[in-house]
């Protein structure tokens, strides 16, 4: 009898399109969250930078409006990844807005600070609300009232309950990473660069991770270095197999394209990862590059990482420009190529190991 009940419940979940899977929640949904961040907070930063450079008021207005809907975009992006029906998808905008905006006031260093949960709050609230909305979707004759009500109210309740905790945890984690990098730029430069770079290539979102913890300053520069090392590194070392199409797809797109090849031949990951371990501390110690939030986790994708450095540091420093060109483009290519050639010589990597279907 118990087995039959479980089977019936499983069939009901399948009928409602609910898949209780870590992959769905932490890979698919987080990857979609990164797209929501790109279409709101990140593009807003780019518009703002362009507006300050050109004085064109339309860019400034676009930046303001786009930043204002960041939470709503995040909620919709999560709902889209979870294949939510229309009423749940549209209702998720309110949930994402609430999750992104809510938080709490905390006594930090003797001063009261208001913290918001940001993208992490929007992510958690939207996942739970969307799944609950899908649970009741099209199960009543008044679906147009029931589904939005369940989705929005459950999401708001979850946001009110968890966002203060999320806000504090994300602040503490980001503060630790940022402060530790300021105090130990060599060690943390290596760790942040390597870890964020690896996350970029994995099927999860480094941009979402950096935005969630509020990475900034030198830690943001190290993260940018790691992401650029992965993208430029793979673009260069796989040029034999993928030619110009692969160079553009990986160098300006994503190194995640190599994930299937990495699973088959993990050795191909060595060169870009070691390159990130070199460029990370160079970014923090020598050039003192800085970057903030989602831009730090994008690398050379659409040149967002370099633009983020420019936005954070301005355009007047010659050292910044030299560091940006070396850390984001030249050194990752050189180091990855040299290391990869050594690996080829000793037989760990062969031509064809990094071939992409482009």
Descriptive labels:
15 helices, mainly alpha, 75% helix, two-stranded antiparallel ribbon, 2 strands, 2 domains, 358 residues
Give a short synopsis of this structure.
The protein is mainly alpha-helical and 358 residues long. It has 2 domains: 2-168, no CATH class; 184-345, no CATH class.
SSE topology:
Elements: H1 2-15, H2 22-54, H3 57-68, H4 70-81, H5 86-101, E1 103-108, E2 111-116, H6 118-136, H7 143-183, H8 185-201, H9 206-213, H10 217-237, H11 239-251, H12 259-264, H13 270-286, H14 304-313, H15 318-345
Antiparallel strand pairs: 1-2
Helix pairs in contact: 2-3, 2-4, 2-9, 2-14, 4-5, 4-6, 5-6, 5-7, 6-7, 7-8, 7-10, 8-9, 8-10, 8-13, 10-11, 10-13, 10-14, 10-15, 13-15, 14-15
Would you write up a description of this structure?
With 358 residues, the chain is mainly α. The chain folds into 2 domains: 2-168, no CATH class; 184-345, no CATH class. It has 15 helices and 2 strands. It has helices at 2-15, 22-54, 57-68, 70-81, 86-101, 118-136, 143-183, 185-201, 206-213, 217-237, 239-251, 259-264, 270-286, 304-313, 318-345; strands at residues 103-108, 111-116. Strand 1 (103-108) and strand 2 form a beta hairpin. The chain is globular. The chain starts with a helix and ends in a 13-residue tail after the last helix.
């Amino acid at each position: 009898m118990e087995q039959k009940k479980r089977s019936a419940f499983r069939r009901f979940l399948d009928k409602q399109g609910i898949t209780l899977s870590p992959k769905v929640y932490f890979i698919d949904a987080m990857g979609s969250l990164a797209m929501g961040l790109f279409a709101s907070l990140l593009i807003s930063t780019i518009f703002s930078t362009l507006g300050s450079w050109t004085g064109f008021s339309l860019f400034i207005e676009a930046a303001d409006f786009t930043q204002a809907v960041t939470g709503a975009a995040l909620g919709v992006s999560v709902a889209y990844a979870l294949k939510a029906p229309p009423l749940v998808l549209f209702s998720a905008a309110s949930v994402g807005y609430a999750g992104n905006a809510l938080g709490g006031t905390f006594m930090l260093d003797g001063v009261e600070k208001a913290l918001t949960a940001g993208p992490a709050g929007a992510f958690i609230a939207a996942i739970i609300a969307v799944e609950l909305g899908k649970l009741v979707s099209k199960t009543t004759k008044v679906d147009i009232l029931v589904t939005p009500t369940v989705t929005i109210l459950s999401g708001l309740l979850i946001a009110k309950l968890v966002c203060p905790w999320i806000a504090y945890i994300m602040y503490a984690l980001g503060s630790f990473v940022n402060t530790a990098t300021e105090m130990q730029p060599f060690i943390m430069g290596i760790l942040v660069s390597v870890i964020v770079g690896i996350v970029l290539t994995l099927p999860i979102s480094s941009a979402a991770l950096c935005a969630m913890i509020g990475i900034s300053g030198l830690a943001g520069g190290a993260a940018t270095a790691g992401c650029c090392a992965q993208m430029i590194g793979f673009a260069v070392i796989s040029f034999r197999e993928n030619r110009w199409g692969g160079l553009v797809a990986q160098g300006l797109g994503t190194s995640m394209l190599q994930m299937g090849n990495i699973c088959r031949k993990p050795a191909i990951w060595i060169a870009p990862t070691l390159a990130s371990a070199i460029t990370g501390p160079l970014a923090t110690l020598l050039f003192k590059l800085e970057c903030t939030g989602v831009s730090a986790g994008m690398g050379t994708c659409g040149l967002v990482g370099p633009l983020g450095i420019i936005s954070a540091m301005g355009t007047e420093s010659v050292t910044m420009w030299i560091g940006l060109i070396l850390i984001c483009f030249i050194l990752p290519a050189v180091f990855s190529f040299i290391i990869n050639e050594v690996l080829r010589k000793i037989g760990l990597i062969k031509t064809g190991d990094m071939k992409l279907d482009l």
